[in-house]
Amino acid sequence: MTGLGFFRLEARRLLLSIIAGSISGLITADILIGVAAASSILLISWGWQLSRMYRWFANPDELPPIGNAGVRGVLRDVYVLRSRSLQGSQSASRAQPYAKESLASMREAALIVNVRLELVWCNDAAEYLLGIQFSEEEGRLLSEVIPGKSLKKYMRQANFQKPLRIKPGPDPEFCLQFEFSRFGVHDSLVFVKDVTAQDKLERMRSDFVGNVSHELRTPLTVIKGYIETLQSVVSEKEMTLQASLASMDTQAARMENLIADLLWLSRIESVEGERKEDLINISELLSTLVAELSLAWPERKLELKLDSPQSVLGDEAELLSAFSNLIVNALKYSDKHSITIKWIDTAVGPALLVEDKGLGIDAKHIPRLTERFYRVDKSRSQERSGTGLGLAIVKHVAVSHDAKLFVDSQLGKGSCFRLVFPASRTELAPESPGGIDDYG
Length: 440
Ligand code: ADP
Prior knowledge:
The protein is α+β, with helices and mostly antiparallel strands. The protein has 13 helices and 14 strands. The site of adenosine-5'-diphosphate has 22 residues, from helix 11 and helix 13.
């Protein structure tokens, strides 16, 4: 029944009572007595209906009282609504054991933890993989069931965007990956995977690259030494030989850069999971870096704007390499134009902006820029002594500092590389140099 329907019914009833009261008033020659009598009858009838309604509310399993037409409509609507919500909650409670049954039959290890991160359920696969007995562990904190600092920290921080890998020991190779997803009101479903083989492969690849790069360093130093010696003994008249030696020298320098970048990348990768918690004064770091780069690129103008007082919790060497790669790229790919470096506050946290008015990048290349050895134009990158690893290093540093790299670029107009840090990783710098510095 609609609100309007109920109102019409009750208004009609009131009108009828008034007419009846008026007629009885005409008969008794006192209209007021008639109206009062009719209103009393109406009130008594409403009171009686209300008391029956409340009695039914106290025992809702019984059928609703029949009542008069208006109240009957209301009661019917209440009855229908209540039956629907009962059906809903019954199907939800029927769905819960069903969901648990499906999780129980899965081959993947699954656990459920409550809001206090206590273990409330797990399947057989989880018991097997974690070597636990649910009956003994039920109600215990998950971080006690699977001891280890990193799981405890991960759960305390409650940032489950990235999965967590841990080595619960005693086998130093045994590696587990935890993926948390919230469900229900405050519970979390945790999937645990044995990623030992995957972890071993990744480590082998990274070790291999690291070892090869390391091994190449010594022969390369020897070759460079010979090139230098030959350059000094070969007469300037022997133009062809001098040109060949100059080219060998350039290539040896390229190889040296490549090895340095490969070694640095493998070092960053090997410590990616570790938390970096040193408080780095970014304004100071940028001031020093920009001053050094302007000495190395004296013909170029670098403008530094320090508008944020925030420091970042992280690793100084890693941040320095990421910032330096972005600024050097802006210098390399923008010829004569000046470039701007800004440290600003944004809605989500502080950000480094490196802007140039150089070559720009076609939109189709942007998603692949951070892949190792991906270059928009290989010959141009090599001309500018690029290794193709700079942005891969930036991406790794960003990931291990929970930061995000954004690239806005227009072909022929220039680019803006933004490295945005989360507010959770920042603190106010004790004393930071502010304002604008011009170099060059
Ligand atoms: P490289 O050592 O070749 O510079 P990077 O990984 O640093 O390697 O960059 C990948 C590619 O992205 C570069 O080869 C270049 O084509 C492009 N690139 C990077 N920064 C810029 C920029 N500021 N302007 C134009 N292109 C850029």
